[in-house]
């Protein structure tokens, strides 16, 4: 407590630290900016860390940053890392101490004119030259070669600064290895960062690492010295930076720069002039590829303003949307992710010095770090959609209305980036030239942003593919870049003559056919491969690829098949750009396209059921395409999708293709040899040949949560790979292996020894289809059957007929299998609902004699399973948990057994997960939630959560997130209450409705939820028991919610968000009770308005011309669009 009359100051919150080391363990060593952002989420807009005795304050709100950008009170201070960078750049513009280093002031005044508009415009031709080199490299690589995005943009930016500023060509695109400057620069930057986290004693030891650090610095300075000496010995009449450094004179003092100061700034420009630009371009293409609407809008602007002609410097100001895309990229991912400031040593006369409008006291030498990534997401400035990429918010009119100091990617005031005009022109040109000539797609559509950090940040492991537009090839693009595109385009049209870039596979036989799929979970990908295999029998050689590869490039004349699903009404990740492009077409652009569509879906998502395939089917026809046949549709809720797909292909698609293209039907014997797999079996050591785009997580804990007598529920805690991040509401995708009992059954059925080795050879003529299992490589039968194929996938009607063909020696077996395939009722009842797999049928009918190669060809490849993450990164960002139910029940596929001998059905993924032991590795990756299913970023938004069973998983993470934020801010809140007598820090109410069978049996996570409720007030948990032991009536979550009608309505009116997680029964039940509440309140409002004449209480949903069903539908549409009603419903 302060003495009477003395001001009261608030303590700055922060995590507890270790003796001497302080909070050094709170920061991720590889990506510290990630940790700093999480700490801001946890502790609020200001917090303090102590590292090795050095206290540092971090701020992230616009209110605080705006105050700290006042140059009359604060100035740029060098962070610990930048102080180490001074070893290489001394008092160059970026690392000078000012006031103090007089050379900075001289260099700044000398160089400002060199970055003026006229000088920058004069560099355009050199910039265009190098941008053209990049475009030519990508054109020659072709559309199948993944582009290492950050590496190529680093080559470009380094060559650009060297040529435009120093008149030197590094020719990075003509060498396989990066220029030695890049390696030395990275050595300086990463070495400086490492040294900043160590005691000075260690930095001064003659270690190999320290010696390399100084060797790198020596190389950088020697290279710069050589460039300066060459220019002095060979003068050029150029208005570039090098001449400005050598010849410039300070207009105030008349002094020139010393040789050492010239070298300091040469190194500075070479580093800063390319490192940030390459990062910004890399982030920009990531965001464009993740946001198809922005991508299409940007490309359409380039086409409208520039067309196919050569780009000129006059075009750049006419690209406002590109400009907005650049601003929005730097908002979300500022490459220089922080600004370091401190009290101004001369101008700030305060005693004591305070910040936060007098709330916090700081020392005169205090280091304060402004976290730009968090500043640029402050919802007070950017709104509730601050996390989203929306370039429209950055168009000039809105951008100019932003509060002062809300957008700071180029630093602050006098020490802001002097090279901003140079970088801006370079980036604008590069973006325009690339969008003009290429279409892009993610190499891995499921990639989500990961960060690599040195002094700046860049995307890590980000790869994309580039396809030339307008039918051009590499030679024609060279003409277009040099002379303009009209001549090259005409040549391309004449040369392509309707052909696409997809081409035919070398050595493939048969007529061309193209199959494009949209798939997140692998089903439609499997269908595409299945259809491509079938195409061989019908005389076609099929090329397959993701739908995005067909954007602006749908083949004409030959048959084209689109196979896609919908995900909550949105296209799959690898189809989003295609769908955005297709939706924007006008006229007859697709005339000559002969197409068919097959769609997958689940009718429980009624509002968006089959939305994407139906839209593709309609849009292609509206834009001139010719539909080959009726669209095929599969509903996972009530049928076997594989059978639906096979039936559509055999009875509708292939006959239509034959009628159009005159191909013969498949041979009658095709099904007997359709696999094309010849398998050689041998014994020997097993080999693991996993070619998976996943990473390995380590099991830290596998905990049984439920008691005996109820279905088993577990929680697994994983150690994540070092650069894998997640947020609450995200999913963990897991690649399982088949249950051991099922694998042993398959090995036994084919009479294989336990250590059998297989070598699979593809003898079919379907070389266009990449194999989903290893070919021409020895692999153990155990590995193959465990890892690569789905052994428990229910059999399709096609599978039944193939098995019947293989039972030719037993007429009874053959007749039974044919009858099962032919009878819709029996097939549904005995195969689909009982989940009878081909392996089950092989075990049931010993007379079936089938080579293992044919068996393998029937099986879809192993797919990943997706689980809601049940933890918060605020607890530990390097770990996550999943909570799940284990499927282990009597098998419906094996009838006729006594109950005690009934075989069990094992869920593939849940069995695999339940058997994992601590220390074992699993193939995992994080998939982000794109549906608004994430907790509010603040603690003042009320929450209503409803779930049953393992559907509690994401809500455990939501509540854990609140717990960490509440704990982190308790000290500050207590101090604020003591000082001001208020309780503004108290969190809003959060209610969790959780359904289970029996208290004490399967009310999972109950004890920790109770602790969080009682000690922190983080949540109120209201359980609903369907099998209570106290004699009460069974209740479900919707019953409990109905009882709390008045409270929930009040909470919703106060801004609450509603979240639902569980099976479709839970989803439908909660929606129905919410609908009831809405209609009750609607009737009340209408009746009150009629009685009082006060129509001001009515809402847009209270129009009496709307019937209740329509009003409820519009209400749910509105609250879902505003992310106030979010669901995660599973089957």
TrEMBL record:
Its cofactor is heme; FAD; FMN. It comes from Penicilliopsis zonata CBS 506.65. GO terms for molecular function: aromatase activity; flavin adenine dinucleotide binding; FMN binding; heme binding; iron ion binding; NADPH-hemoprotein reductase activity. One of its GO terms (cellular component) is cytosol. It comes from the Eukaryota. This is Bifunctional cytochrome P450/NADPH--P450 reductase. Heme binds at residue 417. Residues 692-936 form the FAD-binding FR-type domain. In the N-terminal section; belongs to the cytochrome P450 family. It catalyses: 2 oxidized [cytochrome P450] + NADPH = 2 reduced [cytochrome P450] + NADP(+) + H(+); an organic molecule + reduced [NADPH--hemoprotein reductase] + O2 = an alcohol + oxidized [NADPH--hemoprotein reductase] + H2O + H(+). The keyword rRNA-binding does not apply. Its EC number is 1.14.14.1, 1.6.2.4. Residues 513-653 form the Flavodoxin-like domain.
